């Protein structure tokens, strides 16, 4: 590591961090289905242990000390784990959101079959993500990258329906091909320059290679980026993401916010900044190409999102678009843009996981999956609606949410890097994000039309039995679609049936007939926490250990080495 | 720290009201669920309105409702700290580094009067909410307070990000004000407001990022930095658009005549009085006024758009029959007057100092007078005030907007005319701006005459209302001249008119007299029998619908969307075709199978192996080995 005043210590901590999720995962596989207490205990213990470790590690790592663990797998093939600031940044995100997603998943899958299998792979998935984060060289990265693909497949296919299996197969086809391309790149590069250890600002051996054989270096870089681009859902490699929506909500949340897509985005940053170095990749022509693709993906994903009526699908295309913010930021040679890319890894994760939590809540509690069915959902689930609103406004990038910081940093960085066209892309994306999120928010908060159709006129006569914020000020607005998807008793019936069939907690088994909360606490609380974080991370951006501050620090060390 | 109170109090009150509403919604939702889970034997459980909106049977008011009712009643008190700060707040910079990207506020010569005006206006508007027949009063109170925090922040912000933060908070909570009544019109107005706001936000963000690119963060340095920026013209263009949306500059004004009337009256008052001034503040803060060489082109652009708004709003406004729509058009016209000052400052840098001061005074004057007029609509419709007082208040406020002698407008308009000096409008053949501006006063006279006619025809239905707020409204309407004169007198760069100077008096009176004459003539004309069915003589607001250009723009947008959708369907069709063709293409597996069959025999594979080995041997020998 190049940073000044940094120290490298050999330590087993990286192994311990991996084991905190690997061991519970392996143990959970051996559990019987009904041992749910033990399973929950193992899950939570692992997640909490990892978070404690991360929290303990942050201050020393920020102060400049790096922990390192390595062993030789075969001669010349070293497995290396390090906790440089960027790894820890990603580990902190994934372990924090893992805990919340685990809680959510416990609530979501209550009483459904195959939970041991699910949580086992869930833990493996997080292990792989943490492995990716801690990987100190390309080989280690590659191994965990592939492991992540394999560990996620059973999660996507979890429901076992035809649709789920098809989605999972598409997912596997895309990501395995991506893995092969990445493998090719890694092998080629390792063959030419030996083991590649990530170094802030770029690896010297790679720079030498690029000086001698720029064509080869460019080809290898393109392979690496293309391999990462599959998971990062860059156009035209994004096809799997919307199809993988068939997965259960917690898996979607994990896929879209933490594990898979972020592994791709993280990998892109690793390749550009810690393998090639930003200046070198720019001079090789990798960055302009990446920026072009990312810019196009941002607009493309947003435009596709506009036309989706399925809430999860709209969110999926939004992910395609938002992830490319990270790629775009990484592709601009300016510390501010890099900051934007890094901080968006966290911010997008928290905002998107909130949105998926909420989508899952709407689906589970109200049985509504489509945006056109969401009219008046706020009335039934005000907290969920509030949190959804905050996260969606964050996606648009409005201050003071976390999303604003990313957008501001990317915009300022684009100007610093002399690429004003990026500003145009960002603004177009802002407008498009507004165009596909604001109508959803509007619908959610719409006063529900009670018994649409038959009492449409009566509502006009009695418009203002106003109650608090969710008054029944329904107007006879015949022009707007009278879908009949209002929450009458029939709807509640289907909702109850649907969830009973899924064995989900909303089922009125007499367990919690008159809850105090709008939804089971295990589902609601994670969403509330992440929703609050969307605001907090934006408002308290200047705090010493906020993602924003850390991202700035990491971005600047990357350029500091170059004397920039 | 007074700022904690200035911003914290409104935000806290809004948050508490929000929390109360959430609590109530949670309990309602739970009650609804309980009712559903144990359906009545007779049929499906009653859901939605009837069952849930009925007050509880136990009689006692739940605490959250009591709390939010009280907060609604006394919400206006939350603006008091801002008023105090405007009077006696410290002028030094206050920073909170950990907040967002470093938040800072500072009271300066621009912020102080505008903050004072805003505090008065919001305070009075908040006082007009309880017991006024407004639906969901507590919610409106909360939204207004959020909006207030944003609006005050726009004036007080001392750095770029704080400015943008406040501007955005204000703009988006403005939407909640517009759609508050949930009527069909308000939803349409809200939709248009939101589209325009998002577009404006984008332009503002791009402009501010370009400003930030110059390396400055402090607002005070912005004009000089913009003047030296290589992107100067882009910044000016973006800010003209971005802030123009807010300030109702033609042709970006279309949301204004729809949104201002659609909001509940107290909200209309602040939308039209205080919020449009945020656009002006943006111009004054960021444009390179007085810092660069004469920007004749931009100055002309501002002046032409400004005067277009100033004059074209008049005929369109005269054709309306809703008093609030007429007032909204009057606002467009008046904001045109203000934008003309900005244009003059851009075109003639030497005038910039005087123009900024004049614009500040004018903004205070217009904010107070227009707020009084909007609230006057409610005062007329349902306040307990005697008719004479209401009429007198409305007349005084109206005269002030026109700029008649002895009113606040007299001071503001006279000062503005002095400030623009000999600035000319090149596009109008070098016409002097001072020659043109009085005619805006004529337009105002006509608009307000129309307003008076329309309002007079509305029935008064006096309802019990707090007496204090009526008195406060009357004070504001009758005495706008006092604060305006005080603000003006405190500024050496401002030319005060002599209160008895005949030239100034005549200069300010003739537009009023001419306008009154025209209005009387028009009224006499309209009485004639042959004009009874004439739409122009008796406008019903449908000749030119409120929002004028919006009808055309909506149609254009719809056409564009249709085109886009068709294009996307076509694109999807092409993609589907390709996919189908790929799927229909003969599978390579069969071919591979055949090849494998041939090679399957030992002779085939043996030959292949030999060939590969030979090729490898050839490659190693010719390339010099590995």
From TrEMBL, chain A:
InterPro entries assigned to the protein according to its UniProt record, in alphabetical order: CPA3_Na-H_Antiporter_D, ND/Mrp_TM, Proton_antipo_N
Region Disordered, residue ranges: 454-513
One Gene Ontology cellular component: plasma membrane
Record bears the keyword Membrane: yes
Boundaries of every NADH:quinone oxidoreductase/Mrp antiporter transmembrane domain copy: 135-431
Pfam families, alphabetized: Proton_antipo_M, Proton_antipo_N
Keyword terms: Cell membrane, Membrane, Transmembrane, Transmembrane helix
Domain NADH-Ubiquinone oxidoreductase (complex I) chain 5 N-terminal: 77-119
Full protein name: Cation:proton antiporter
Native source organism of the sequence: Sediminivirga luteola
From TrEMBL, chain B:
GO terms (BP aspect): ATP synthesis coupled electron transport
Transmembrane is among the record's keywords: yes
Cellular component GO terms held in the UniProt record: plasma membrane
Keywords: Cell membrane, Membrane, Oxidoreductase, Transmembrane, Transmembrane helix
Spans annotated as Disordered: 38-59
One Pfam match: Proton_antipo_M
Record-annotated membrane-spanning stretches: 109-128, 140-157, 163-180, 192-214, 234-256, 268-286, 298-319, 326-345, 351-377, 389-412, 436-456, 468-489, 509-526, 599-619
Keyword Cell membrane applies: yes
Molecular function (Gene Ontology), one example: NADH dehydrogenase (ubiquinone) activity
Span of domain NADH:quinone oxidoreductase/Mrp antiporter transmembrane: 157-383
InterPro entries (alphabetical): ComplexI-like_HydComp, NADH_UbQ_OxRdtase, ND/Mrp_TM
Region forming the signal peptide: none
UniProt-annotated location(s): Cell membrane; Membrane
Membrane topology term: Multi-pass membrane protein
Record-given protein name: NADH:quinone oxidoreductase/Mrp antiporter transmembrane domain-containing protein
Species: Sediminivirga luteola
């Amino acid at each position: 590591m190049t940073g000044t005043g940094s120290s490298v210590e050999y330590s087993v901590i990286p192994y311990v961090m991996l084991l905190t999720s690997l061991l519970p995962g392996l143990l959970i596989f051996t559990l019987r289905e009904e041992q749910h207490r033990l399973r929950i205990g193992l899950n939570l213990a692992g997640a909490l242990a990892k978070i404690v470790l991360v929290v303990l590690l942050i201050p020393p790592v920020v102060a400049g000390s790096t922990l390192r663990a390595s062993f030789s797998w075969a001669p010349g093939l070293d497995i290396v784990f390090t906790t440089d600031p960027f790894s820890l940044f990603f580990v902190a995100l994934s372990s924090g959101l893992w805990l919340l997603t685990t809680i959510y998943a416990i609530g979501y899958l209550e009483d459904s079959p195959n939970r041991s299998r699910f949580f086992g792979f869930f833990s493996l998935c997080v292990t792989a993500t943490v492995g990716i984060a801690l990987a100190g060289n390309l080989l280690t990265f590659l191994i965990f990258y592939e492991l992540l693909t394999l560990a996620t497949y059973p999660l996507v296919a979890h429901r076992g329906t035809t649709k789920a299996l098809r989605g999972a197969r598409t997912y596997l086809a895309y990501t395995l091909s991506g893995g092969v391309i990445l493998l090719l790149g890694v092998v080629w590069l390792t063959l030419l320059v030996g083991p590649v250890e990530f170094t802030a600002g770029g690896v010297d051996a790679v720079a030498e290679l690029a000086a001698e054989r720029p064509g080869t270096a460019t080809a290898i870089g393109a392979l690496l980026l293309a391999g990462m681009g599959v998971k990062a859902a860059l156009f035209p490699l994004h096809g799997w993401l919307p199809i993988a929506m068939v997965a259960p909500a917690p898996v979607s949340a994990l896929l879209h916010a933490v594990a898979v897509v972020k592994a791709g985005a993280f990998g892109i940053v690793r390749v550009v900044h810690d393998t090639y170095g930003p200046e070198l990749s720019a001079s090789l022509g990798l960055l302009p190409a990446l920026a072009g693709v990312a810019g196009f993906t941002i607009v493309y994903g947003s435009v596709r999102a506009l036309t989706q009526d399925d809430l999860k699908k709209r969110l999926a295309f939004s992910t395609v678009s938002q992830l490319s913010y990270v790629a775009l930021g990484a592709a601009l040679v300016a510390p501010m843009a890099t900051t934007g890319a890094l901080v968006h890894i966290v911010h997008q994760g928290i905002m998107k996981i909130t949105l998926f939590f909420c989508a899952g809540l709407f689906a589970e509690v109200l049985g509504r999956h489509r945006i056109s069915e969401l009219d008046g959902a706020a009335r039934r689930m005000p907290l969920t609606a509030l949190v959804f609103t905050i996260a969606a406004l964050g996606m648009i990038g409005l201050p003071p949410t976390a999303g604003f910081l990313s957008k501001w940093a990317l915009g300022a960085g684009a100007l610093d890097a002399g690429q004003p066209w990026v500003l145009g892309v960002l603004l177009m994306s802002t407008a498009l994000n507004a165009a596909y999120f604001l109508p959803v928010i509007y619908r959610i908060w719409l006063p529900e039309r009670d018994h649409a159709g038959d009492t449409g006129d009566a509502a006009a006569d009695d418009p203002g039995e106003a109650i608090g914020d969710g008054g029944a000020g329904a107007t006879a607005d015949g022009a707007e679609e009278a879908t009949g998807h209002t929450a009458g008793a029939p709807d509640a019936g289907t909702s109850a049936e649907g969830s009973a069939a899924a064995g989900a907690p909303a089922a009125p088994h007499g367990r919690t007939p008159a809850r105090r909360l709008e939804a089971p606490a295990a589902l609601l609380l994670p969403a509330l926490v992440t929703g609050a974080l969307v605001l907090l991370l934006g408002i308290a951006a200047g705090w010493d250990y906020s993602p924003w501050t850390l991202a700035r620090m990491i971005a600047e060390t990357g350029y500091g080495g170059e004397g920039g | 720290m007074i700022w904690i109170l200035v911003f914290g109090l409104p935000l806290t009150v809004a948050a508490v009201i929000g929390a109360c509403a959430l609590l109530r919604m949670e309990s309602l939702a739970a009650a609804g669920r309980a009712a559903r889970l144990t359906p009545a034997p007779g049929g499906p459980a009653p859901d939605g309105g009837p069952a849930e909106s009925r007050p509880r049977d136990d009689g006692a008011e739940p605490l959250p409702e009591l709390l939010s009712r009280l907060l609604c009643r006394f919400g206006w008190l939350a603006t008091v700290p801002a008023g105090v700060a405007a009077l006696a707040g410290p002028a030094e910079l206050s920073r909170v580094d950990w907040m967002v990207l470093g938040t800072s506020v500072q009271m300066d010569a621009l912020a102080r009067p505008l903050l004072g005006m805003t505090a008065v206006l919001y305070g009075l508007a908040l006082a007009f909410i309880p017991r006024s027949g407004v639906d969901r009063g507590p919610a409106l109170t909360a939204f207004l307070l959020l909006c207030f925090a944003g609006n005050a922040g726009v004036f007080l912000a001392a750095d770029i990000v704080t400015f943008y933060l406040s501007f955005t908070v204000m703009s988006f909570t403005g939407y909640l004000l517009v759609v508050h009544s949930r009527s069909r019109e308000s939803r349409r107005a809200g939709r248009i407001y939101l589209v325009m706001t998002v577009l404006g936000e984008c332009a503002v963000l791009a402009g501010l990022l370009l400003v930030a690119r110059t390396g400055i963060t402090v607002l005070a340095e912005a004009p000089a930095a913009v003047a030296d920026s290589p992107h100067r013209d882009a910044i000016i263009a973006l800010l003209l658009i971005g802030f123009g949306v807010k300030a109702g500059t033609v042709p970006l004004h279309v949301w204004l005549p729809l949104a201002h009337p659609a909001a509940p009256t107290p909200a209309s008052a602040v939308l039209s009085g205080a919020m449009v001034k945020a656009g002006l503040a943006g111009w004054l803060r960021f444009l390179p006024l007085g810092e660069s060489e004469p920007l004749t082109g931009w100055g002309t652009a501002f002046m032409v758009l400004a005067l277009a708004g100033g004059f074209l709003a008049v005929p369109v406004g005269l054709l309306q029959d809703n008093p609030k729509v007429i007032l909204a058009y009057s606002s467009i016209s008046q904001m045109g007057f203000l934008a003309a000052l900005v244009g003059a400052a851009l075109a003639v840098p030497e005038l910039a100092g005087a123009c900024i001061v004049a614009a500040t005074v004018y903004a205070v004057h217009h904010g107070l007078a227009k707020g009084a007029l909007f609230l006057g609509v409610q005062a007329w419709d349902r306040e307990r005030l005697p008719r004479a007082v209401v009429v007198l208040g409305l007349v005084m406020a109206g005269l002030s907007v026109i700029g008649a002698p002895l009113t606040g407008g007299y001071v503001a308009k006279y000062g503005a005319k002095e400030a623009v000096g000999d600035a000319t409008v090149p596009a109008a053949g070098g016409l002097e701006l001072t020659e043109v501006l009085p005619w805006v006063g004529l337009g105002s006279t006509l608009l307000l005459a129309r307003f008076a006619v329309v309002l007079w025809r509305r029935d008064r239905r006096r309802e019990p209302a707090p007496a204090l707020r009526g008195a406060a409204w009357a004070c504001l309407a009758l005495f706008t001249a006092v604060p305006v004169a005080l603000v003006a007198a405190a500024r050496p760069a401002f030319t005060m008119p002599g209160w008895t100077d005949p030239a100034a008096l005549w200069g300010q009176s003739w537009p009023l007299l001419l306008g009154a004459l025209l209005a009387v003539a028009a009224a006499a004309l309209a009485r004639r029998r042959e004009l009874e069915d004439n739409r122009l003589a008796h406008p019903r607001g449908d000749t030119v619908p409120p929002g004028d250009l919006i009808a055309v723009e909506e149609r254009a947008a719809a056409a564009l969307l249709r085109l886009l959708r068709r294009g996307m369907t076509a694109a999807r069709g092409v993609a589907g075709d390709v996919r189908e063709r790929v799927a229909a293409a003969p599978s390579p597996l069969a071919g591979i199978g055949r090849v494998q069959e041939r090679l399957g025999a030992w002779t085939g594979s043996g030959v292949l192996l030999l060939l590969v080995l030979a090729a490898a041997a050839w490659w190693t020998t010719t390339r010099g080995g590995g």
